[in-house]
Design a protein that fits this description.
Largest sheet of chain B: 5 strands, mixed
Largest interface: A-B, 26 and 19 residues
Shape of chain A: globular
Helix content of chain A: under 10%
Radius of gyration of chain B: 13 Å
Helix content of chain B: under 10%
Structural class of chain B: mainly beta
Oligomer: heterodimer
Number of helices of chain A: 0
Structural class of chain A: mainly beta
Strand content of chain A: over 45%
Radius of gyration of chain A: 13 Å
Number of strands of chain B: 9
Strand order of the largest sheet of chain B: 1-9-8-3-4
Distance between the termini of chain A: 37 Å
Number of strands of chain A: 11
Chain lengths: 116, 109
Amino acid sequence: GAVVSQHPSWVICKSGTSVKIECRSLDFQATTMFWYRQFPKQSLMLMATSNEGSKATYEQGVEKDKFLINHASLTLSTLTVTSAHPEDSSFYICSARMGQGYDEQYFGPGTRLTVT
Amino acid sequence: DAKTTQPPSMDCAEGRAANLPCNHSTISGNEYVYWYRQIHSQGPQYIIHGLKNNETNEMSSLIITEDRKSSTLILPHATLRDTAVYYCIVSLNFNKFYFGSGTKLNVKP
């Protein structure tokens, strides 16, 4: 099956700093990528939809200026958490879809962010 | 918002079939039913999906009722490695996924 990777797998940063998380589709081209956030013992929450070459579409309640998403190529999307605070500590997961049609949505392994 | 409801947890004996139910009474005619599972601290793993016909693959079967208001995921011979949270999602053709709370399946020896 298709593989999606995330980097880093975990990161610790200080409050007020920015953190960038990468999501890569390793063996396929992803026209659409999705970003999710998951707090402990909770379900995944969709944050935004990212299409290659266009601006991301954010879900209601997600601050687009705080969570910057860039989908510059068909194999890479990045999520930057700007001015991170302890409440941003979470498990961030991306997924990728090849394109229109009956294609799976492949999930990455997730990135654990801890803001101190 | 999630359009599915699932029991919060279920137990299953190892080697027996695990039947996980899902209600999606507001599903529209062109929405698919997807099943994913998430093992602790990993990304979700695709299991199976269907529109209205029953589906089967190497690891599971998906039974969708005729009115499409509910479905059941069947793991025919559960193993300890099947212990996970199972999510039932309805969506248009792998479009946006709104996850519900899922079912925690505990497979016991």
